[in-house]
Amino acid sequence: MTSATASTPAPTGFELRTPEDWVDYSVADEASENRMAQEVWTRAREGGLAEEQAGQYAEQLRRSVREARRAGAVHAAGVFQLYEDGPLTATVLIAVVTPPATGDIIGALTAVGQPGRADGTWRRVGTAQIPGIGTVGRVHGIQNVTQDGATMRCAVMHTVVPLPGSSNVLVVTGSSPNLAEAEELFELFATITGTLTFTWGDEAPALATPQTFLGESATQG
Asked: Is the dihedral of CA 63, 188, 103, 96 positive or negative?
């Protein structure tokens, strides 16, 4: 009998729709990090934030994009908006990873699920449905995220999507330090991830060489 992975061609790309006020981030190199950080700094200053605050948000974005590049992300998108009650920042990253040797991604995610901790962090594990793709694994919660040695508390959602014709998976990660809006952000990340579709042989973003599935660290944002 021919296996599913042998008979099904693996996708060469993907499409993911984000809200109109989001922008796609290049994860190509350090120069792209600098350009995006400068853009955020400029928008923050034009919105009335002090220079120090603007610098903090610009550096936060820089760290997020740098961490994504180091982790092998193939795509990144995000938003920086100023409202009366303060700024909103959020990012969505996409990476291709190799699952554990057992191939049981859902089991691996469940193994790192945790109840609420005394420090206020928590994680919930479950599944979701993506139209045209099927059942996917999902982990969401409030986590301490470390990037370039700096730690901040964020609302984080990871969605693990099996790749057709492959033993690898696509991991879509949404994160934001805006904890007061965590529930709304989880809904937004779920909505964005729900637009995911795979493509074959076109100009959509390419699926790059997979990274190794990192178990617990893969749920740390």
From this structure: negative
